[in-house]
Input
Amino acid sequence: MDFSVIQQSLPLFANAFMTTLWLSVVGITLAAVIGILCALVRYFEIPVGERIAGAYEELFRNTPLLIQLFFLYYALPTLGITLSAYSCAIVGLALLGGAYMAGAFRGGFGGIPRIQTESARALGLTKVQNARFVVLPQGLTLSIAPFAANAIFLVKETSIFTAIAVPELTNEARDLIGMYYHTDEYLLMLVIGYAIILVPLSIGLTFLERRFRSGAFGN
Amino acid sequence: MELSGIEVLFAGSNFSRLMGGLAVSVRVSALALLIGIPAGVILGALWTLPSRAIDLVLRLYLEFFRIIPTLVLLFLAYYILPRELGFRVDGETVAVFAFALWIAAEMSDIVRGALISVPVVQVEGARALALGRLQQLRYVQLPQSVNLIMPATINLATRVIKTTSLLLLISVLDVVNVGQQIMEANRDRYPDAALWVYSFIFVLYFLACYPLAAAANRLEIRAKERIHG
Output
C-alpha cells in the first residue's frame, strides 16, 4: 500500500465521488416521484393507468439496469433519439428506481386502514383530495423504511454507469487502475467512497426498520 | 446495401452464438447459487446460536457484501483473486467466486430471519423432547420457516440472474458481450442492429426473471396467509 498514490488520486476520487452522489440524489428523487405516482394510480385503481403502471413495474424490475442503459445509449439513437451519457444515466436510474419505489410506496399505502379512505370518500373528498390529505400523509410515513432500502440499492446501481463511461467512482477507479496499475490503492479508495455514502444510509435504515418494523426490502 | 430489421439476430451463426453467450450467464448463476445457497443456510443456522463472536463476524460479513456494489465486488475478485492464488483465473471463475460469497451473505440473513421467526414455544417444545440442536433445526425450525425462505431465495435468484449482465465488464463472453460483437461486425450492413440485439437481450432477461418473480410473489402471499390465518 503506497499512501502517496492515495494522496495523489484523492482529488480525482473526490470529483468522482461528487458525481456518484449527485447522480444518486437526482435519480432517487425522480424515482420517488415516479414511484409515488404509480403507487397512487394503482391504489385508486384508475382504469388503464393501473394496467400501464403494473406493466411498467414488472418490465423494469425484471430486467438488468445495464441492458436498460445500453438500450437508452446505443439503441435509441437508431430511432433518432440521442441522449448524452449523463442523461442516459439519470433516465435509466429514474426508470429502474421508479419501478422499485412504486413497490415500496404501494406497500406503505397498503398499510393504511381501509376505513380511512372510505371515510374520506363518504365525506365527499375527490380522489385528489383523498390522496393529498389522507393517503399521502399516512402512506409516506409507512413507506420510509422500504424507501431507504431502495435508496441504498439505487446508490449501488450507479456503479453500473461505468459501462457507458460516466465518470463516477467505479469508472474513475477502473481508469486509474488501467493507467497506473496501483490496483490495491485504487480499489481501497473505491470501497471507501461507497462506504462513506452507504454506511450512514444503512445505519439509518436499521434504525428506521426497528421503529417501523417494516420488511419489504429491495426486490 | 442497407438491410434493416430483425434479420441480424438470425444471420449466419448469430443466433447460436447469442445462445452460447446465454449459456455462460446461466452457468455462472447456477454454479454460484449451488455454492452460495447451502453455504448461506449453514451460516444462517450458525447465526442463531447464542454467540457474540459468531454474531459479530457474520454481521460484518453481511454488511460488507450489502454495502459494496456487486460490480465492485466483481472487480475486487477480478484483481485480487488471481494474485492471491498465484495463477491466471478466467472471468467466469472470478464471477462464480464473487457471486457465491455475495449469495451466501444474503442467504444467511434470509435463513436467520426465518429461523428466529419460528415461535419460541416450538423450540422449547423440541428441547423438552430432548431433541439435539441439529434435530431441532432439521425437524422443527427448518420445516416451519421454509415457507418464508423459499420466496426470498427465489427473489435472490432473480437478482443473481440480472447481475450476470455485468459479466461483460470483466471480459466474460456472456450474452451481452456476444451481442456487442455482433453489432460491431454488422455496423455497416445493419445500422439498427443495436435496437434489435438489445431488445432481444432485454426480452431474454425478462423471460428469465418475470416467472420467477411472479412465483415468489405467490409464495409470499401464501406464507402471509398461513401466518395470519
User: Anything to note?
Assistant: The two ends of chain A are 37 Å apart (CA to CA). The domain at 3-212 of chain A is CATH 1.10.3720.10 (MetI-like fold).
